[in-house]
Design a protein that fits this description.
single chain, about 850 residues, alpha+beta, Jelly Rolls, Tachylectin-2, Chain A, 4 domains, eight-stranded antiparallel beta sheet, 14 helices, transmembrane
């Protein structure tokens, strides 16, 4: 019953990559799933007691000996909504007791939260990263040491800092410790609430050690190069959290409780006869609020949270009884006086519609009858009515799942158990149809029917609808046994395909004693399952389970009949022939040499000395070049006939194109074949990855050759895309010229406005590797805009200041400097009410992202 608009990266469960699609004569569809983006070790930090904080010792078996130049690199992001992030990210200690530490201090007075410590002193390597970046995405950190120069170099994608005379020239073997540790005088329990993955150690540019930290469980993560074991204390494995449900709360209550979910606060409510229990998903804490008088909650009552009024409604359908609990005043508006008989609407579905401010109840079961009635309760006028609908599409049933579309106009109902006549004695059966109910027309429509599985199943109450991706998520379970189990499934809203996600949850099922529901938390990125079971003594056991999103995939159950074995053999034969032909063509085809074609990776930007100012011709309003490549906003590539041709690329080819292109433009020199394999075909054998790469490189080269002004080559040993800039206009190259010009002027900012007005870099695409490019670009743009905002001429131009702030907000919605700039500019224009509204909206967003109140007041920023 909960709806959410999943971000574009969640439309296919980010972190799980479909790395290959082999189609045999249009009949066979096979997906290979990678979990690489869900890897990592979650560190319990200051939020946990000292004994429960996480430590990772890479040198547990023996010191790590790094003879020569070496590099330590890893990915990091912080767990959101923690009170304190102070602590050691890592400590590197040589055999003489000399230490190199990376420390994070969120309360640093000089604004440099990250500090690199050398022995007993702070080094020159100190920097700050925006909290929004640290809390929202993985950031790649790298520490390199050059032994000959005694030089230490730090890089995080935003800063490159160095220091000489580090005093490590004679040190070759080290203890390497992340988080807490118990090593001699260096022991510490100061740990930031962080997540670490993909720890690599290179010696003389050769990979000696690699801990992906992709374990599901255990305390001995394995180095994939040398087979060394590390040691972890108090681990929480991200991969495990994405593949296994864990019970986060279990308790008992007397009587017959019901459940509801507050999506805004991500709280589960258990409405019991004497208390309202409130369980927070964020910190897994629970409190209870007692009522003025006990509630008469009969078996079969249901509860639902109303986001329109921030109330909880408890409903007993038989008597059309509705009681409202006000969360602000902690009061019920009326008592119940219910009869003793059992409900006739067991496991009916319920949905609150924002479209018409009404509660809808579908189906149910009782007194040997399945229901197909649709009942509506007007939340404003407090009136019940029965909705007259077209008969025959929605068959009498219970134990179905229901959810609502993003626009609030259509309700989805999937599966269930019932009979065509509604009578239990006449051929009851499991249903597998997906139907929609239009709130505009009060009509049902059948979308499709799943093929009947070998093991029949029904659904828990709620269906999570991802309207953007046209997908749903639900909990299924066999309804023909007492010791049952719940499984999460994901399916298409357009065709009868679905797949099982994660492992199963034990579930005691007897329809008048049991209840199960599913919720989704978009901030904490978790699915929540809740089960109730009431025993003969009327004591109900409540269990709450969580699994992180995206969830690891089990078997694909796309219910298309399996083709005969000879079609598989024929498909394999065709695939082998196709691959062989592709290899022959690649070997025979000569690479065209075009010496006049400039290499994008080696573009020479204008000499700063030659540029008096960044003129507007860097940003042509209408390009005269026949081919145009746009990377800001949505990806668009127009050929010489002005036809948008990027749509011809499959998702994989589009990613391959961008991966090589951006490494050619930004990183200079291109990208190695090994890195392509790690990113696009992670987890595949070297042979399979190489074959996939060869086939897709050939496809991409054919596509680029047709454009005639792009050349894909590997002349330098790295894959690179060269562009003939005389005929091709690339907005990203204009951007590089603007930001690399050191001239500070209003014209420079206007040029930047012209570029980024289409939107952020590749805003419709989300890849893990792309985050670094986007973050780096965002950081550069924000720096340019805020630098301009501090200039005297900007303070005298409130319209420009508002533009600057709005563009900063498009990259960093909780930038403190931007909200101050905009509020003051609006104040100068006399728009004080609008300034206050801007500030209030910022404070709300700040609280939502950081889980903490913004420390400044509106008065203070306006008077400063």
């Amino acid at each position: 019953m909960i709806n959410f608009n999943w971000p574009s990266d969640c439309s296919s469960f980010p972190g799980n990559r479909c790395t290959a699609k082999l189609v045999f004569i249009g009949l066979i569809f096979i997906s290979f799933l990678s979990y690489g983006q869900n890897n990592g070790l979650q560190f319990s930090g200051q939020n946990a007691v000292q004994d429960r904080r996480t430590s990772l010792d890479l040198s547990f078996e023996d010191d790590l000996c790094l003879k020569g130049n070496f590099e330590l690199s890893f990915d990091l992001f912080f767990s959101p909504k923690q009170r304190d992030y102070y602590g050691y990210v890592f400590r590197l200690i040589d055999q003489q007791g000399y230490n190199i530490d990376l420390l994070y201090d969120q309360k640093s007075t000089n604004g440099q939260n990250f500090k690199l410590i050398l022995g007993n002193r702070f080094s020159k390597i100190a920097f700050n990263l925006d909290t929004g970046i640290l809390l929202s995405k993985w950031t790649h950190f790298s520490l390199k040491y050059n032994r000959e120069k005694d030089l230490l170099v730090w890089s995080d994608g935003y800063h490159t800092l160095s220091e000489r005379h580090v005093k490590l020239t004679n040190s070759e073997c080290f203890k390497i410790l992340f988080g807490a540790n118990h090593f001699k005088r260096f022991k510490t329990t100061d740990v930031p609430a962080m997540n670490i993955r993909d720890i690599r150690i290179l010696v003389n540019e050769h990979l000696n050690f690699y801990w992906p930290l992709d374990e599901l469980e255990g305390s001995s993560p394995l180095d994939r190069v040398s087979g060394r074991k590390a040691k972890v204390e108090n681990p929480t494995w991200i991969n495990g959290n994405h593949s296994k449900w864990r019970m986060i709360k279990s308790f008992t209550v007397k009587g017959h409780p019901s459940t509801a979910f507050n999506l805004n606060k991500e709280q589960v409510y258990v409405v019991a006869p004497n208390y309202l229990y409130q369980f927070s998903i964020q910190d897994e804490s629970m409190d209870s609020v007692s009522y003025d008088a006990p509630r008469n909650l009969k078996a079969g009552n249901q509860s639902i949270y109303n986001p329109l009024s921030n109330d909880i409604y408890n409903v007993f359908i038989d008597q059309k009884k509705v009681s409202k609990y006000n969360l602000a005043t902690q009061q019920w508006n009326q008592p119940y006086d219910l009869p003793k008989r059992l409900t006739k609407y067991w496991h009916a579905n319920k949905v609150i519609s924002k479209w018409d401010s009404a509660l809808y109840v579908f189906g149910g079961y009782g007194q040997l009858m399945y229901k197909d009635s649709i009942q509506r309760y007007d939340l404003k006028n407090k009136v019940w009515s029965e909705v007259k609908v077209n008969k025959g599409v929605f068959k009498p049933r219970y134990l179905a799942a229901s959810g609502i579309s993003a626009n609030g106009e259509n309700i989805f109902i999937l599966g269930g158990y019932g009979s065509n006549t509604g009578q239990q004695m006449l051929n009851p059966e499991n249903y597998y149809d997906l139907v929609t109910f239009s709130l505009k027309t009060n009509t049902f429509k059948k979308v499709f029917e799943l093929q009947r599985p070998d093991q029949d199943f029904v659904f828990a109450a709620s269906l999570i609808i991802d309207s953007a991706a046209q997908k749903y998520y639900g909990l299924i379970f066999p309804n023909d046994k007492f010791n049952s189990e719940l499984k999460l499934v994901s399916g298409s809203l357009l065709q009868p395909t679905y797949q099982i996600l994660g492992n199963s949850i034990p579930y005691l099922f007897h329809d008048i004693n049991a209840y199960a529901d599913l919720f989704y938390c978009p901030v904490n990125k978790k699915f929540i399952a809740i089960t109730l079971f009431t025993d003969d003594d009327h004591v109900t056991t409540v269990k709450i389970y969580a699994i992180d999103s995206p969830v690891g995939t089990g078997s694909v159950l796309n219910k298309i009949k399996r083709p005969p074995y000879y079609l598989y053999l024929g498909g394999i034969l065709l695939l082998m022939v196709g691959l062989g032909m592709a290899l022959i063509i690649l070997r025979r085809k000569k690479v065209r040499e075009d010496s006049a074609l400039p290499i994008v990776g080696m573009i020479e930007l204008p000499d700063i000395a030659e540029v008096a100012s960044v003129s507007s011709d860097l940003i042509p309003s209408a390009t005269s070049k026949p081919i145009q490549l746009l990377l800001f906003g949505n990806l668009q590539l127009f050929d010489e006939e002005a036809t948008e041709v990027s749509k011809q690329l499959s998702p994989l080819l589009k990613e391959l194109f961008l991966l090589i292109l951006l490494h050619s433009l930004r990183k200079e020199g291109g990208i190695s074949a090994k890195m392509l394999d790690e990113i696009l075909w992670f987890g595949k054998s070297e042979r399979i990855a190489r074959n996939n790469r060869s086939v897709n490189i050939a496809k991409l080269k054919s596509f680029l050759d047709r454009l005639n002004r792009f050349r894909l080559n590997k002349d330098s040993g790295y894959w690179r895309i060269d562009i003939d800039l005389e005929f091709v206009d690339v907005d990203y190259i204009h951007y590089l010229k603007v930001v690399q010009s050191q001239t500070a002027s209003e014209q420079k900012v206007r040029n930047l406005f012209e570029l980024i007005k289409r939107g952020p870099l590749l805003q419709n695409l989300e890849f893990d590797w792309l985050d670094g490019f986007k973050s780096e670009l965002s950081h550069e743009i924000i720096d340019v805009l805020l630098s301009q905002s501090r200039r005297p001429e900007t303070t005298k131009n409130p319209e420009l200041a508002i533009q600057l702030a709005d563009y900063v907000f498009s990259f960093d919605p909780v930038n403190e400097e931007a909200v101050i700039l905009k509020c003051r500019a609006l104040g100068l224009l006399g728009k004080h009410a609008l300034a206050k509204n801007t500030f209030d909206r910022f404070v709300k967003d700040y609280q939502s992202i950081y889980g903490d109140a913004f420390k400044r007041t509106f008065r203070s920023i306006m008077q400063e």
